[in-house]
Amino acid sequence: MTTTESGNTNKTMDICEIKAYLPHRYPLLLVDRVLRYEENKSITAIKNVTVNEEFFNGHFPHKPVMPGVLMIEAMAQTAALLSFKSMGIKPDENSVVYFVGIDNARFKRPVGPGDQLKMDVEIVRVSRGIWKYKAVGSVDGQTAVEADLMCTIRSSTDASQPAGQ
């Protein structure tokens, strides 16, 4: 967390803090840095896409393109970070974030090696343990992917119960 000259606090997260909040690890950890977040509101994070990504070996060797499902997953991981920060909790080894729904997913441009996928996620609402977000991923100011995401946080020991209960 840094403070600007005007006294505003910019809340950020580096990779070490991200790994403390997300259980994902290589090759499925898809958030490299959080540029800013505001609890209960929004978050902006980045994924640096490199030619060394495992998925480029098969998708596609002649024209590497980041799979759309992984772009959606990167935005969902960003949303999970915002949810945990908004709740003021750090997940334990039993906390799991599950997709409940993905609506209105649209892919507007390919993402490939050398691109930086910037993910802007905002909370639309939280109701009965279901978090709804509006997510947009862009590269160089151009929308690459957008979707409405719905997730819930559960305990892996009892997937029918919210985490911590």
TrEMBL record:
GO terms for cellular component: cytoplasm; membrane. Signal peptide: none annotated. Keywords: Cytoplasm, Lipid A biosynthesis, Lipid biosynthesis, Lipid metabolism, Lyase. The lineage of its organism: Bacteria, Pseudomonadati, Pseudomonadota, Betaproteobacteria, Burkholderiales. It holds the Pfam family FabA. InterPro entries: FabA_FabZ, FabZ, HotDog_dom_sf. It is an enzyme of class 4 (lyase). It is found in: Cytoplasm. The active site is at H59. This is 3-hydroxyacyl-[acyl-carrier-protein] dehydratase FabZ. GO terms for molecular function: (3R)-hydroxyacyl-[acyl-carrier-protein] dehydratase activity. Involved in unsaturated fatty acids biosynthesis. Catalyzes the dehydration of short chain beta-hydroxyacyl-ACPs and long chain saturated and unsaturated beta-hydroxyacyl-ACPs. Its EC number is 4.2.1.59. Its main location: cytoplasm. It comes from the Bacteria. PANTHER family: 3-HYDROXYACYL-[ACYL-CARRIER-PROTEIN] DEHYDRATASE. GO terms for biological process: fatty acid biosynthetic process; lipid A biosynthetic process. Belongs to the thioester dehydratase family. FabZ subfamily. It catalyses: a (3R)-hydroxyacyl-[ACP] = a (2E)-enoyl-[ACP] + H2O.
